[in-house]
Design brief:
It is an enzyme of class 2 (transferase). It comes from Camelina sativa. This is uroporphyrinogen-III C-methyltransferase. Belongs to the precorrin methyltransferase family. The protein is of the alpha/beta class and 377 residues long. It has twelve helices and 14 strands. It has a seven-stranded mixed sheet, with helices on both faces.
């Protein structure tokens, strides 16, 4: 494991791959990107760009929901899961319900006054993808829609920088999900979207990445359309594309990978096996991108090797990709799960498995064969 300065690979800079190949990279397994704003490990948890349940920034921006129970900023950067869950259940939801009813009443009254005898019809719902984490990867259309919303329902992986774009008079409502706890069920989210749209509000549903790639956006769109609500989807850069670009990994590459496959690492009923059948994914000419796969990775990696994927297949796991707190673990498939465990990666982490990973200028296992892939293929 090694600590290195952040290498300037971003959407706003041009990276010379051939020059990168000349850097003498020692064979490390973990790269920790850092900036001046995150110079110490102790600040990492408190300066997270993601809106965790204990985010002070989120409470400050959503304070309209907490007039009944004023939150006390946590004394430590990361409260225990038990304390966090207790606060959510006893304070968060209890104080939201009356405020939500009040807001619905205000919106309905405003709508009636504006109609003046006509039928205004319901408001619109926008499913907006906010990309993998870097706010500069938002589309112009996404920014315009975010700034025009009356109410925004947002997930855990929407960064505070994105929430700063919300208009001052708009309302924010957290509906995020974490492993083992959902602040709102999917059915409750459906009903919230429907209720506010029927009241005439312009409702924006903010999702990390792209709303239609493992974001359950299709379910929300189908439900609302069946209720006669117009839904518009604003695509976002999915984590696979954004993070691969940040690391200089082409998801497909002539002569190396002829296809790419997006997979979910979710397990059945909380088990250790991923939902998909590993033998169908063990193709050495296909790049595998696994979303939410930390918990099932040991089983997945073993099954892929059992079904013929070479044990030295390059792989990378990226925690909080495209953000200042990005951490990256490179390893061959046979050592991958062990290296990730040693590095202590946490969600959100994206996993990429395939020969294209060694095309990254950050791939540490430099061999004569791997260093010539870009030049000869």
């Amino acid at each position: 494991m090694a600590l290195v300065q952040r290498i300037p690979v971003s959407s706003s800079s041009v990276w010379n791959w051939q020059q990168a190949r000349t850097i003498n990279l020692s064979p490390v397994c973990c790269l920790h990107y850092k900036t001046a704003s995150s110079s110490s490990s102790s600040s990492s948890s408190s300066s997270s760009p993601f809106t965790e349940k204990h985010s002070v920034e989120r409470y400050q921006r959503d304070q309209w929901l907490y007039k009944a129970v004023e939150p006390t900023p946590p004394s430590t950067p990361s409260p225990s899961p038990f304390e966090d869950e207790v606060f959510v259940r006893e304070n968060d939801i209890a104080s939201q319900l009356p405020e939500l009813k009040k807001l619905l009443s205000v919106l309905r009254e405003k709508r009636v006054k504006g109609c003046k005898g006509g039928d205004c019809g319901p408001g619109d719902v926008y499913l907006v993808g906010t990309g993998p984490g870097d706010p500069e990867l938002l589309t112009l259309k996404a920014v315009r829609v975010i700034q025009s919303a009356d109410l925004l329902l947002y997930d855990r992986l929407v960064s505070n920088d994105v929430l700063e774009l919300v208009a001052p008079d708009a309302r924010l409502l957290y509906v995020g999900k974490t492993a083992g706890y959902h602040s709102r069920t999917q059915e409750e989210i459906h009903e919230l979207l429907l209720s506010f749209a029927e009241a005439g509000a312009t409702v924006v549903r903010l999702k990390g990445g792209d709303p239609l790639v493992f974001g359950r956006g299709g379910e929300e769109m189908d439900f609302l359309q069946q209720q006669g609500i117009r839904v518009q989807v604003i695509p976002g850069i999915t984590a696979a594309s954004g993070i691969a670009a940040e690391l200089g990994i082409p998801l497909t590459h002539r002569g190396v990978a002829t296809s790419v496959r997006f997979l979910t690492g979710h397990s059945r009923k909380g088990g250790t096996d991923p939902l998909f059948v590993a033998e169908n994914a063990a193709d050495p000419d296909t790049t595998l991108v696994v979303y939410v796969g930390l918990g099932t990775l040991p089983s997945l990696a073993q099954k892929l090797m059992d079904h013929g994927l070479p044990c030295d297949t390059p792989a990378v796991a990226v925690e909080r990709g495209t953000t200042p707190l990005q951490r990256t673990v490179f390893a061959e498939l046979k050592d991958f799960a062990t290296e990730i465990q040693s590095a202590g990666l946490v969600s959100p982490t994206l996993i990429i498995i395939g020969k294209v990973v060694e095309l990254s200028p950050l791939w540490p296992h430099c061999t004569k064969e791997s260093s010539c892939l870009v030049e000869t293929r």
